[in-house]
Design goal:
single chain; alpha/beta; Metallo-beta-lactamase, Chain A; five-stranded mixed sheet; 12 strands; about 40% helix; about 20% strand; binds zinc ion
């Protein structure tokens, strides 16, 4: 009897090992072309901009900026704020996104855009929408690149906004030669994988998805449309503008696989990016102005489409990993 149990356990162990070997083979199988084809299929008609940006050969990090960066002309970046859901407002630029989640106990901003535009877009945007920017309690910085962290110090200094990042990206920000010292926020709230952040009636879940930077944060949070509940997913870092090493691509791939599973289990049906080109905001934001009662919200794309967005990122990363070899 004892030996039978031992035999069946051994058989189970062998089966598990075989499954693990197959899973490993799947992660390393395929060709550049087969992964590009898988990404194209996942992109469908909705995620073509993401496919186009990620599946071409990756170029790696841009050259480091030298000297002070002049603020661009306002007309090149300014956008008006837009109400998109009952509790969610767009307060970003033409290209760089910032989203304001209005809760029963204040406002959470997701990404702080640039130092030159935070006052004009986030602060004045909230005022135009009828909100008091002094009620921005938290700003979650998806990752410590200057186009998303640039306004954090201003919010911290002006309103006492708590700045939220992962430990790895606090370190990354402190060391980064690309961030001028006067815009770096003081180290504040540190979040870890699967943490929850609650303000009033609203809870966000935090998912660490390193790859784009060492501590990129992706999120899940609720949004209501005419009282109907939905769930937002964000993929916090998109491009392959990191050092092009196999380890970095594998980290990105592992995060995409993990986060797609999070998306699948959560049922998230909205995908928001921090760049307007990737989530369709360039057409969806203007469309909100002419939306009539009863029209579908263009941001509600369904769980399958949100999963496919993350799949595009994963498959294009696999293609670019193979291009290194
Ligand atoms: Zn970035
Ligand atoms: Zn960016």
């Amino acid at each position: 009897m004892t030996s039978q149990i031992t035999v069946s356990l051994t058989a189970a162990a062998v089966a598990a090992a075989l499954l693990a070997a197959q899973a490993h083979a799947q992660t390393t199988a395929g060709t550049v072309d087969s992964h590009v084809a898988a990404a194209k299929a996942a992109a469908g008609t909705e995620h073509v901009a993401l496919f186009d940006a990620l599946c071409r050969p990756a170029s790696g990090p841009p050259p480091a900026a030298t000297g002070p960066r002049p603020a661009p002309e306002r007309s090149t970046w300014h956008a008006e704020p837009v109400k998109v859901f009952d509790n969610l407002y767009y307060v970003g630029e033409k290209e760089y996104s910032s989203w304001a989640i209005v809760t029963s106990d204040g406002i959470i901003v997701v990404d702080t855009i640039w130092a030159h535009s935070v006052d004009d877009e986030i602060v004045n945007g909230l005022k135009k929408l009828g909100f008091d920017p002094a009620r921005i309690k938290y700003a979650i910085v998806s990752h410590a690149h200057i186009d998303h962290i640039g306004g954090a110090r201003f919010l911290q200094d002006t309103y006492g906004t708590r700045i939220v990042m992962s430990a790895a990206d606090w370190d990354f920000a402190e060391k980064s030669p690309r961030l001028p010292a006067d815009i770096k926020p003081r180290r504040d709230v540190v979040v870890a994988d699967n943490d929850k952040l609650t303000l009033g009636d609203t809870t966000l879940s935090i998912h660490l998805t390193p790859g784009h930077t060492p501590g990129t944060i992706s999120l899940l949070y609720p949004a209501k449309d005419g009282g109907v509940p939905h769930l937002v997913a964000t993929w916090g870092g998109t491009g392959f503008n990191f050092e092009l090493t196999a380890a970095n691509f594998q980290t990105y791939i592992d995060s995409a696989v993990k986060y797609r599973d999070v998306v699948a289990k959560s049922g998230a049906d909205i995908l928001l990016s921090n760049h307007t080109i990737f989530d369709g905001s360039r057409t969806k934001l203007p469309a909100m102005a002419t939306r009539k009662a009863g029209d579908p919200n263009p941001y509600v794309i369904g769980n399958d489409s949100v999963q496919r967005y993350v799949k595009v990122a994963e498959e294009c990363a696999r293609a670019n990993l193979l291009r290194l070899k």
